[in-house]
Amino acid sequence: MQFGIMSVSDITRDPVSGYTPSEKERIDAIVRIAVHAEEVGLDVFAIGEHHNPPFFSSSPTTLLAHIGALTERLILTTSTTLITTNDPVRLAEEYAMLQHLVGGRMDLMLGRGNTAPVYPWFGQDIRQGLPLALENYNLLHRLWREDVVDWEGQFRTPLQGFTSTPRPLDDTPPFVWHGSIRTPEIAEQAAFYGNGYFANNIFWPKEHYQRLIRFYRQRFEHYGHGPQKKAIVGLGGQAFLAENSQDAHAQFRPYFNEAPVYGHGPSMEDFEEMTPLSVGSPQEVIDKTLTFREAFGDYQRQMFLIDHAGLPVDTVLKQLDLLGERVVPVLREELAARRDPEAAEPPTHASLVKAKYGDAEPRQPRPNANRGDNVTGGSPYQDSEAEVSAYPAP
Fold first, then answer.
1. Is the peptide bond before 166 cis (omega within 30 degrees of 0)?
2. With 80 as the cut, is the pLDDT of residue 108 above it?
3. Which of 149, 263, 281, 303 gives the lowest tally of CB atoms within 10 Å of its CB?
4. How far apart are CA 207 and CA 380, in angstroms?
5. What are the chain's domains?
6. How far apart are CA 163 and CA 253, in angstroms?
7. Looking at the predicted structure, is the pLDDT value of residue 96 above 50?
8. Contact 5, 307 (CB under 8 A)
């Protein structure tokens, strides 16, 4: 099981102090938070993508590359990357570059995005969100697996003899999650390709996510990727911790009440009862999180949202201390003891390379300097004879 934290990159006024951080302060804070996540023993850090205030994360690969240079083992990912308003060619190149820079310790989560004004900013129409997501990911999937791509679709200009550079590290594409809050279409897309499915698991009752995850697992098996227990599932969650329940509720209440997403709605206690929100002592957060496996079965990645709603960075760092020292070690042990031994392992770059190449050395694409631009067809890469003889059969 992989454990981590995810951020939506909001810049929100602190309702206690009344202070709103600048963009620079918030960016510096998220870097501190990500580095500290590794220091306390977490596995994954995820950042969202937004192109409108009050969010700052418009360039996730730049931010993740910087964090990658400051860390050694942390898996870096997104929550989410917009497959609809980003050009698939740019996604293929930027995330392959990130993959190289961080030595493979990255993956990405794709989603449609539900902020309507963003679509026309990038020349798209939200009413075409679903066909855009399907077409764009089909192209991205091919760009990472084929040296030369000929392609024609509805939403962008055709490609003829196009090569995305750099090629993926070890000729092995990054693992892809498809993230969803409420719709089955994203679960279907994840199942079709045999990719991971990430259920937001924050704002809705467990019954909602049970239906989506059950549907994804059934379709994963339907498409021939293996039995349902081999499907790759990730879950979100949000928590606020203190030494005891009373202190946790007292400290978090003003932030909950003024939160842009759920503030001025149901009470915090009602929200805790109806959704995965955990506010309490480390043991209470452990107990609540363990119910996720009871509801959804074995899964591979658990992400917590802990830095939103104007919480000051020092408070978030203390949350990380409690998660890393007192919550995650217990969850690792408890979930490992309950895990079906045939359940899928969390995906990593090493496991993907192993699945593709076995014990053979992975292909290392080398541009053919004598060819120049690929204008005559065929691959613009020249592989050594030793590499060619070692490649597994298609």
1. yes
2. yes
3. 263
4. 50
5. 2-358 (3.20.20.30)
6. 52
7. yes
8. yes
